[in-house]
Design brief:
Layout lengths: L1 E8 L16 H13 L3 E5 L8 E11 L10 H8 L4 E9 L5 H4 E11 L13 E2 L6 H6 L1 H4 L1 E4 L14 E12 L2 E8 L6 H13 L5 H10 L14 E8 L1 H7 L2
Parallel strand pairs: 3-10, 5-6
Antiparallel strand pairs: 1-3, 1-4, 2-3, 5-9, 5-10, 7-8, 8-9
Helix pairs in contact: 1-2
Length: 255
């Protein structure tokens, strides 16, 4: 049987989601917890590969249980949390069909990038935000938003060395919200390239710093030239914020 779990995690201590040799990963922690509560080896597949140091406000994963568990579905989160470290927490579990493949059912994702924009560091946001002590020109950053929206080839916003052939993605929403010293940049799309959100954020920062103007931004998108886009913002400010499932699946698992 399969279980679809909804979880959150702080990625500071992890080398991303996916299992890697000799590295601490979220997937490995979930596999351990699932094996303990179901008393059988369990496979875990995730909705996305998050990088080292990246966090998740909402992450979806599927557990493939190779046994006949007597644990009620509503009790799965509490049972697994017993065996998970304090920086990972499951909040919901639902039974799904045996042929459920999570990567096939994800229609899009929303990432959030958190910036602490203040002259002094916030120790409570260490490793959980980008500390940026300079004044941000939010008006200039927002003027750049329309250039990113829609369907484009985002080759210029992909990490160098990536071997993905199809670099066309559709950004459905990009917005900048600020409250006090916290600035949050939200990006929603049907899919993301490696480091795409972090490069978009770095580009917006360089637009604020007057290192990149809107003409150069447009040229970066049209040409696909990575050198024309901005720097890659650090991982610690990035959060997978929401996962958008196929509406038909959402209806099936709705309470």
């Amino acid at each position: 049987m399969k279980h679809l779990i909804y979880l959150s995690y702080l990625g500071t201590e992890y080398s991303g989601f996916q299992v890697q040799p000799n590295a601490k990963t979220v997937q490995a922690a979930l596999q351990y917890a699932a094996t303990k509560i179901f008393d059988t080896p369990c496979g875990v597949s995730g909705c996305s590969r998050t990088d080292s140091g990246v966090h998740a406000n909402e992450y979806l994963a599927a557990i493939e249980e190779h046994g006949t568990s007597a644990i009620p579905e509503a009790a799965v989160p509490r049972a697994m949390n017993t065996y998970l470290p304090k920086d990972i927490s499951i909040r919901k579990s639902v039974r799904v069909a045996e042929d459920f493949k999570i990567r096939h059912e994800v229609m899009g994702k929303e990432y959030m990038y958190l910036i602490w924009n203040h002259p002094y560091r916030n120790p409570f946001l260490s490793d959980r935000s980008l500390y940026y002590p300079r004044t941000l020109d939010l008006e200039k950053m927002r003027e750049a938003i329309p250039y990113f929206l829609g369907k484009h080839d985002f080759h210029a916003f992909m990490a160098s060395g990536s071997d993905i052939a199809d670099t066309v993605r559709t950004i459905t929403d990009l917005r900048i919200e600020n409250e006090g010293e916290s600035v949050k940049i939200y990006v929603s799309a049907d899919g993301f390239l490696y480091n795409m959100v972090r490069i978009i954020v770095g580009t917006l920062l360089e637009i604020s710093e007057e290192k990149i103007d809107l003409e150069r931004l447009e040229n970066a998108i049209v040409s696909g030239n990575r050198a024309l886009a901005g720097r890659t913002a650090p991982a610690e400010g990035l959060y997978l914020n929401r996962v958008f499932l196929n509406p038909d699946i959402e209806k099936e698992i709705a309470p």
